[in-house]
Amino acid sequence: MTSVEQVAPTANNFLKTIIDEDLKSGKHSSIVTRFPPEPNGYLHIGHAKSICINFGLARDFGGRCHLRFDDTNPAKEELEYIDSIKESVLWLGFDWGEHLYFASDNFEQLYQWAVFLIKDGKAYVEDLNAEQIRAHRGTLTEPGTESPYRNRSVEENLDLFSRMRTGEFPDGTRVLRAKIDMASPNISLRDPVLYRILHTPHPHVGDAWKIYPMYDFAHGQTDAIEGITHSICTLEFESHKPLYEWFLDNLPVPSRPRQYEFARLNLTYTVMSKRKLQELVQLGTVSGWDDPRMPTLAGIKRRGYTPAAVRAFCEQIGVGRSDSWIDVSILEECVRTDLNESAPRTMAVLRPIKLVIDNYPADLTEELQAANHPQKPEMGSRTIYFNREIWIDAEDFMEVPSKGFHRLTVGGEVKLRAGYIVKCTGVVKDAQGAVVELHGEYDPASREGIHTADGRKVKGVIHWVSAAHAVTVEVRLFDRLFSDPNPDRGGVDYKQFLNAGSIETLSDCKIEATLAGANVETRYQFERMGYFRQDPKDSFPGKLVFNRIVTLRDAWITKK
RNA sequence: AGGGGUAUAGCCAAACGGUAAGGCAACGGCCUCUGACGCCGUCAUCUCUUGGUUCGAAUCCAGGUACCCCUGCCA
Predict the structure, then answer these.
(1) Is A206 helix (H, G, I), strand (E, B) or coil?
(2) Pairing with A368, which of A86, A149, A158, A341 sits 20 to 30 Å away (CA)?
(3) Distances in Å between the alpha carbon of A423 and those of A172, A297, A370, A387, A418?
(4) Is A248 helix (H, G, I), strand (E, B) or coil?
(5) What ipTM describes this predicted complex?
(6) A367 classed as catalytic
């Protein structure tokens, strides 16, 4: 290594600027961020952006990042999700260390703070039902009207609130509200609900509570309790900020966090809403939350995307406040870039057609050496076998070649990668006229390079596998789940944009024998075909299943 | 009585009153036993629009326009 320092490629963004200034001015001596998912579903690529921002900022500025479950609504939350979220964050390469928190661990403190507000005349128990509350709230352009219960005495409020806690009242009969301003142009300030009655057990604190705080009453205070300095969320919470601050201003909280918002990730050709993803699972359109086509982190992981690639993607798309649409191809490109470095090369024939080399001795098998990586000799080489009958890909042969096609044609010659130059001398057809077998002749002197004996350079190099040594496996090729760039746009059913060809299963693929004992975790490049790895759920010794993680770039296809 | 945001190239995105970074894509070309990888080059006289302030404006001011978010006892 040279002594030249690698300049940090990380682009500047508004959050870094804010933190820089806070550190420089002495407002904070170090920063604390948090990733605060509600455990009500699986994480997706949009969450990865948030995770990378929060944990990345902490890492870059020498601070720390907490994992906090925002578990204030037991009706939607489950232990299963808590576990899968932890797993996904870890998989992405981040670690909260000792700093795992649950909003629900603060329920007693939050309750005491609610009592504090009541005593301060800033909160009251509401007897109106949900529908009436809505009617009183007003509209976007009209102010709301005050509830008849708004001016109850502190004593009555205290009594009612404590009885709400003990479970005396059924769900939906009362709520606790903040007394702020029913005429505020910001609707979230029109006496927001603080607590609702829910006789529902909670995944983390069990049946200790019959009332649960709302997000708004929990988030900022929890940030304050944890000592969060920069509370980073998505743009849709922006209008909640005055409320977030109202609580911090009116409660004896131990610290003063600030909320900052960024634009959430929108990806083309995919849907990100939990409801729609769930529907795809329920309908059986996909095999589950971890279907390799899903934008969930579980799906992405199973597909074979690497954490490093996802992190690089999040770094590359940047952080801003303007609504943006990122093309999925950028994610795919990040995966290619990462895998190109690390994936050992191998050959696999996906759509096999037999090539019989008539001038090759029937009883001979040669051992050839093939490099595992063209630019990295340190990755070594492997032994492959060459004999009279080999498999080549049907797509690498055209009886009547199209313009620009430089693979195998009748009478044409091509280099078999790491092997010999062969010339196709004829084809065998079935009754329907389809080509079922190729015949050819090889040039024994063409092991090195791509030049023929008379000095010509062959145009094409194709992959192949010895028929006698090949192992047959299943390969699954994936394409985008949707055929429209924005299936989630309003007004139409996103399901009408489902891509019928989003998965193609090939059951008669031929791989090199050395791959039969391959590690499930190892990603390979099947030369000229893309990056693949075994499906962690469906692949077993004796019945191997490979997923195509991503194709190689293909200027030829693009040109066609 | 509505409020809050956002507009810089095909897609992201820097810039902090001093003369439009970078990445991806695209397009040429080179290299190549992967139509891969890699390498070289090209790609905004201009920042949604109209005025204004200034020696100087993407940055400041005023007026437009477009899009996004907010009327859950969801987060």
Answers:
(1) strand
(2) A341
(3) 80, 47, 21, 15, 16
(4) helix
(5) 0.94
(6) no
